[in-house]
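To illustrate the input format used throughout this study, we show a single complete record. The first block contains the structure-token representation of the backbone; no residue identities are included at this stage. The design step must infer an amino acid for every position from geometry alone.
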């Protein structure tokens, strides 16, 4: 098979193929697939397991354990609302609910237009100006529910 004929999945897994005496690194492989495809399709679990020489259950276990791994493709922009202690004490939950209502999207899901995917995150290290919302790589602090529309507008 030529390199041109390989799928993005196969190419992303190639560097993850364990070389004895190394043990397979399932997380590294799943992150490589997500980086190549934008998510880890559950239909690829068997292929990933075969390449790594592990069971489907081991791959599924790692995939379900790490919240940074996505089984659905994300929207163009990833919104992460901090659920850490400081943010929750400063009404981060209200900010999250406002974003859900504003975009009509649930946590872990994206809008039909795939502009935004909404996720929760643990402490973003921005506690001094909590509550915190990250949009892609941009940190926003002291976010109030009334800030939500203007905060998201530049990303539309
Ligand atoms: S708890 Fe949210 S930034 Fe630390």
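Output of the design step:
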């Amino acid at each position: 098979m030529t390199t041109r004929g390989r799928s993005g999945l196969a190419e992303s897994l190639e560097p993850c193929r364990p070389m004895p005496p190394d043990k397979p690194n399932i997380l590294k492989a799943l992150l490589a697939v997500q980086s190549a495809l934008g998510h880890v399709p559950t239909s690829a679990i068997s292929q990933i397991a075969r390449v790594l020489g592990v069971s489907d259950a081991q791959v599924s276990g790692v995939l379900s354990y790490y919240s940074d791994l996505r089984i659905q493709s994300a929207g163009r922009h990833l919104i992460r609302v901090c659920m850490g202690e400081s943010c929750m004490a400063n009404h981060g939950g209200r900010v999250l609910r406002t974003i859900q209502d504003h975009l009509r999207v649930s946590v872990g899901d994206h809008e039909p237009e795939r502009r935004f995917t909404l996720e929760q995150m643990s402490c973003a290290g921005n506690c001094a100006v909590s509550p915190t919302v990250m949009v892609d790589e941009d940190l926003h602090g002291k976010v109030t529910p009334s800030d939500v529309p203007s905060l998201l507008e530049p990303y539309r």
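Structural context for interpreting the output: The chain has seven helices and four strands. The chain has two domains: 3-65, 77-155.
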